[in-house]
Amino acid sequence: MTDTGPLFVSSGDLVSDRRYKAAVELAARGDFAAAADVLMQTVEVAPGFATAWFALGAIRDRLGDREGAMAAFRAASRGDPEDYHGARLQLARLGAGAGTPAMTEPYVRRLFDQYAGRYDAALTEHLHYRGPALLLEAVTSALARQARPIRFESLLDLGCGTGLGGAVFRPFSVRLVGVDLSAALIARAEAKGDYDRLVVGNLAAFLSDEIAKAAQYDLVLAADVFVYVNDLAPVLADIARVLAPRGVVAFTVETHSGAGVRLLPTLRFAHGRPYLRDVISAAGLKLVTLEEAAIRTEKGVPVNGLVLIAGLRTNPKTWRRTRSGHDKPCGTIEFRLTLSKLTQ
Predict the structure, then answer these.
(1) Which range has the worst mean pLDDT, 52-66, 153-167, 303-317?
(2) End-to-end CA distance of the chain
(3) What is the structure's pLDDT at 313?
C-alpha cells in the first residue's frame, strides 16, 4: 500500500500472502474495486490476517463504503491487539469506538521506522516543517525579556527523531540528550553527531528513569512530538520533575478551536487552548508563552499550531505578570547509545 497503508505482516499461509500482494498491486494501479474483491477472498480463507483486513478497510474507506470500512478495521483490530497497523485510530477517525485512543508503541515505532529513510527530506522539503526554528525563536525571546543568555548546561530533546531539533539547539547546549521510540530515527541522529547521549525508548519510561536519578535539565524540548500523544497530563507532570529550578519546557502542538483533544483525519492529535492551560497548570507549571504558528503545511495548506513555553510555578520570583495578562519570565563530550526498556 502507500505510506498510510499497513506494513506487511505475513498470515503464515503462502497462498494468502500472495493474494494480498496481488491486491496491493491492483490498488497501486488504481483498481480499488478489484483489490477489495481479492482481499475479501483472502480474509475468507485467512480470517486472522490482520494486514489484509486493514488494507481492505483502507480501500473500502477510499471507495466511500464507511460501514464496510469499519467492519474491516474491527476485524483487523481483533487480529492485531497491539494495534500495530493503527486500526483503532482508523475506527476513531470514522466515529466508532473511543474518540481519542492512545497510540500504541508498536504502531508509533513502525510508523517512524519505515519512514526514517526519507524523514528529513519529507519534513523540510515537502511539509516545510519549522518546529525547531520556531521554538528557538520563542525561547530566545522569553529569555531575552529576563536578560538571560540562551545557554543551557543540559538540554533534553524528547522525541528527537533524526535530530532536527538537536541541530538547531546544539550551539546553545553544553550537554544534549535525545530520546525517541524509533531505533531507525535514533540511528540517523547518531550519525549526525550532535547529541552527547541518545536513548531508544518511550517518553514515560525514560522520564521515569531520569526522575529516579534526580536528573535535571535547563530546557526540555518537544518539537512536533505531542501530536502523537492524546493525554499530555502525565508527560508534562514528569517533565516538571526533571526541570532545573529556572528551567523551561518548550513544545509545539497542533490545535483546534475547541476545548479538548481531537483526533485529526491525519491521525495526529490536536489540543485545544483551554485543555493546554489546564494540563500545564496541573503539572505545576506556569505558562510563559502561547503563540499561534504554522508548524508545517499539509498539501500546501498551513496547519494550525501553537508554540508554548512554561516554567516551574514553584519558583515565584522567576515570573512576573504583564499588563496583558500573559506570564513572562523575569530575571570532553561522550556519546553513548542506550536501549531503554520498552513498555506498553
Answers:
(1) 303-317
(2) 27
(3) 86
